Amino acid sequence: MGVQGPMPLLVVLLVCTALGKPVPCGRRNDLKPLIVGGIESVQGRWPWQASLRFKKSHHCGGSLLSHRWVLTAAHCFRKYLDPKKWRVQLGQLTSKPSLWNSKAYSGRYRVKDIFVNSEDTTRFHDLALLRLASSVTYNKYIQPVCMLPSTFVFQQQPDCWVTGWGVLQENKKPLPPPYHLREVQVTILNPSRCYELLRIPSLHPFNNSDLFCAGAEDGSADTCGGDSGGPLVCNMDGLWYQIGIVSWGIGCGRPNLPGLYTNVSQHYNWIQTMMVLSSAVRSALVLPLLSLTLLQAP
After folding, report:
1. Which of 58, 63, 66, 75 is catalytic?
2. Would residue 75 show up in a list of annotated catalytic residues for this protein?
3. What whole-number distance in Å separates Cα of residue 49 and Cα of residue 71?
4. How would DSSP label each residue in 228-251?
5. 228 part of the active site
6. Is 222 an annotated catalytic residue?
7. Could you read off the pLDDT of 133-182 as tens digits, one per residue?
8. Disulfide: which of 52, 124, 243, 277 matches 60 by Cβ 3.0-4.6 Å?
């Protein structure tokens, strides 16, 4: 689980010094027309969606949190740990942009650092933070998503969606041309129903709040290979909040076997702390100013 309790003075000071005012998040352009049935998306509908690219090919999904940070799944990096070999693509509908698409390459960013939440060494937490080597430029196709420290309110809420460039069916070929981002509406199951369907001991409501189930019990809505690390988002009062990260599942689209997602709210404090502290280290003024502030404090 993430760091609990109130944010310490050190972190509060670093927030004010290093980050300044928060930027708007969770907003999108509701472009028309949408594809009937909610299968293939359109550019700008999910402006925080990222494509994590290894050796110039799409490998996992991700989501933009701020100008320098992307959230994804830790298991995407089990074999490939060197951040220099990764790129993050933003603002594109296709996972395979043309060589002549200059906008695609202007929205492609190098990865400077990969952070995995390893505070509890006895458990594997399937989320990772990527710090980008340069600042992302926002536009109508590139915007950050919001987060919340608690997502209980979204259980059984219908307006939740998951997006990705993964395969369309279990044991099928990769996404066909034009390799466009797909979207599907899912239902978030309560913990007891999740455990009832999957019967995995570590998913028992009393044992683990790190994961949750989402999808459709008839198997008609699910994620599959290539969707890992992508965001599950829900709408509340006109803003979109990421509550889950595509983690794993038993097959794809099987009845009574919903997908499993990392619960973002369980790591909210860790995410915020990592973003603040890592950003602060990059500033040559933060620590001197902090020291001066502490010396002058009563």
Report:
1. 75
2. yes
3. 10
4. TT-EEEEEETTEEEEEEEEEE-SS
5. yes
6. no
7. 999 999 999 999 999 887 666 766 667 999 999 887 777 677 778 899 99
8. 52
